[in-house]
Each structure stands twice: as structure tokens, then as C-alpha cells.
Design brief:
Elements: E1 2-11, E2 14-24, E3 29-33, H1 40-47, E4 55-60, E5 63-64, E6 67-70, E7 73-76, H2 79-86, E8 89-92, H3 104-114, H4 120-133, H5 149-161, E9 167-171, H6 179-194, E10 198-202, H7 206-212, E11 215-220, E12 223-228, H8 230-233, H9 240-249
Parallel strand pairs: 3-10, 3-11, 8-9, 9-10
Antiparallel strand pairs: 1-2, 1-4, 4-5, 6-7, 11-12
Helix pairs in contact: 3-4, 3-5, 4-5, 5-6
Bound molecules: adenosine-5'-triphosphate and magnesium ion.
The site of adenosine-5'-triphosphate (ATP) has 11 residues, from strand 2 and helix 1.
């Protein structure tokens, strides 16, 4: 479902991704671990072309993201094509990014109405179903400012699911939350993982990685140091850098 192949990305002289490859099969969950500055967010952002890569390719659902190939040359796609591709990729950020002037229901309905121009009645049904799924049916008409952080993040997850994406990317979805609110968000994510959603999750929640991940990827200084099933990477890491990192976050 996701195929990242030899991706390089620099900001000026800073080499942030130095040849990262990663495959995520349909229905799989990949958890990306790594120290601050190792390139985790940048890697996620390359998956939906929020960040242009300098070399390498990203494909989602069998389609190159951001480019079309002609012979050996890649041509960047026009903006409207990139926007179409992004509808296949849900993104959940650390800081929710909800529209403060829209209700919960309107936040979730926004993309299907404006980006996909789906009929109102059908979107209303989708929104109800998604709010039920994240346990927020009773907050449909509330404004984000009146919600707890955990509730806001669950709205953000419902919004990311509203376009029925092929994959959902999470960038530290619980790290801005008070500790007692982390569990309710992880519960929703576990539920998504179980129901076969293809996910890439950047998180420091090792418990979640152990339970929900098919693959754990340890990124350090822009390189994949180690990847494999959780019991291998978390419990029996092969590399000293992985070991040191895991022991710090456990
Ligand atoms: N737009 C940008 N311009 C310049 N430098 C950037 C930009 N985005 C990221 N960087 C730098 O790239 C490096 C990797 O950043 P990135 O956000 O991917 O790290 P991260 O692993 O997500 O870290 P954290 O755990 O702190 O979120 C950092 O040194 C960061 O300062
Ligand atoms: Mg980050």
C-alpha cells in the first residue's frame, strides 16, 4: 500500500533523510520510533508530498506520489493532481489542526463536501458513523474550543477518515495530551488498526507499538537503523543505538 524507496531529503546543508526505504502492506501498521530530529515527521510528510523529496520515490496504492514517470524522468504533477492524491492519505497531527469556527460535525464534513463534492445527505451519514466510531456522537454540535484535548484528537481522527483514505498517517498524535487523555486516543487507534486500516504512526508510546504494530522502524539521523516486528526491534534490538533509545523511552 505504501512503498518508500531510497528517499533523500535535505534542508540546505542538513541531510534529514539519507536513503530511507519502507514498505507497508495493505492493512498493516508501521510504527516509526526515533530521537527528536531524526527525520520522522519529514518522512511522514514526504508520503503525501507535503515535503518534496530530493531523490527516491514514494508510491501509495500503486501510484507514484507527486510525480508522473515518463521514461527515466519524473515530472512533478500539477497541484490539482497532488490534491487528488492527498484525498487517499489521511493525516493526524500532534496539534489537531481543527477549524475553530466549525462544529465537530462541520469539521468532519468539510473535506468530503468541498474536496469530493459528495451529496450532503450521504456526508451527514458518514459523519454520524465516524463520530460514533470515535465515541463522540454526543459532541457533534460542539465547537473544538469546548472539547478536551483527547476529544479534539478523536475529532481529528474522524476527519482524517472522512475521505475514506487508503492510508492514515499519525504524527505523535498523543504527545500534546495530558497523560490521562492518552488512553482514549490510543483506544481509537487500536480499533482502527484491528479493523484493517493501513497506518504509519510516529509515536513514543511503546505499549501501543508492541500491541498494534506489524512493523517497528527505528529511524536515527535520517537512516532506518533497524526494522522488524515489535518483539524483535523493541525487545531484542540488534543495534546499540536502538537499544539505547528504547531503554530511554520505556
Ligand atoms: N522546513 C524545514 N526547514 C529546515 N529544516 C527543517 C525543516 N523541517 C525539518 N527540519 C529539520 O530537519 C530535522 C528533522 O526534523 P523532523 O521534524 O523530521 O524530526 P523529527 O524526528 O520529527 O523530530 P521530533 O521528534 O522532534 O518531532 C530537524 O533538524 C529539523 O530542524
Ligand atoms: Mg516530528
Amino acid at each position: 500500500m505504501i512503498e518508500i524507496d531510497g528517499v533523500h531529503k535535505s534542508f540546505g546543508a542538513l541531510r534529514v533523510l539519507r536513503g530511507v526505504s519502507l514498505k507497508v502492506a495493505p492493512g498493516e501498521v508501521a510504527v516509526v520510533l526515533g530521537p527528536s530530529g531524526s527525520g520522522k515527521s519529514t518522512l511522514l510528510r514526504t508520503i503525501n508530498h507535503l515535503e518534496k523529496v530530493d531523490a527516491g520515490t514514494v508510491a501509495v496504492d500503486g501510484e507514484l506520489v507527486g510525480y508522473r514517470r515518463s521514461g527515466d524522468v519524473l515530472h512533478e504533477l500539477p497541484e490539482r493532481e497532488i490534491l487528488r492524491q492527498r484525498t487517499k492519505i489521511g493525516f493526524v497531527f500532534q496539534n489537531f489542526n481543527l477549524f475553530p469556527h466549525l462544529t465537530v460535525r462541520e469539521n468532519v464534513a468539510e473535506a468530503p463536501l468541498s474536496a469530493q463534492r459528495r451529496p450532503k445527505a450521504e456526508v451527514a451519514e458518514t459523519v454520524n458513523r465516524l463520530l460514533l466510531r470515535v465515541g463522540l456522537s454526543d459532541k457533534a454540535d460542539a465547537y473544538p474550543g469546548t472539547l478536551s484535548g483527547g476529544q479534539r484528537q478523536r475529532v481529528a481522527i474522524a476527519r482524517a477518515l472522512a475521505l475514506d483514505p487508503k492510508v492514515v498517517l499519525f504524527d505523535e498524535p498523543t504527545s500534546a495530551l495530558d497523560p490521562e487523555l492518552v488512553g482514549e486516543v490510543l483506544d481509537v487507534m487500536r480499533d482502527l488498526a484491528k479493523s484493517g486500516t493501513t497506518m504509519v504512526v510516529v509515536t513514543h508510546e511503546i505499549g501501543f507499538a508492541r500491541e498494534a504494530a506489524d512493523t517497528v522502524v527505528f529511524l536515527d539521523e535520517g537512516l532506518v537503523v533497524e526494522q522488524g516486528p515489535p518483539d524483535q526491534v523493541i525487545d531484542h534490538p540488534q543495534h546499540e543505538r536502538t537499544r539505547a533509545f528504547i531503554s530511554r523511552v520505556l
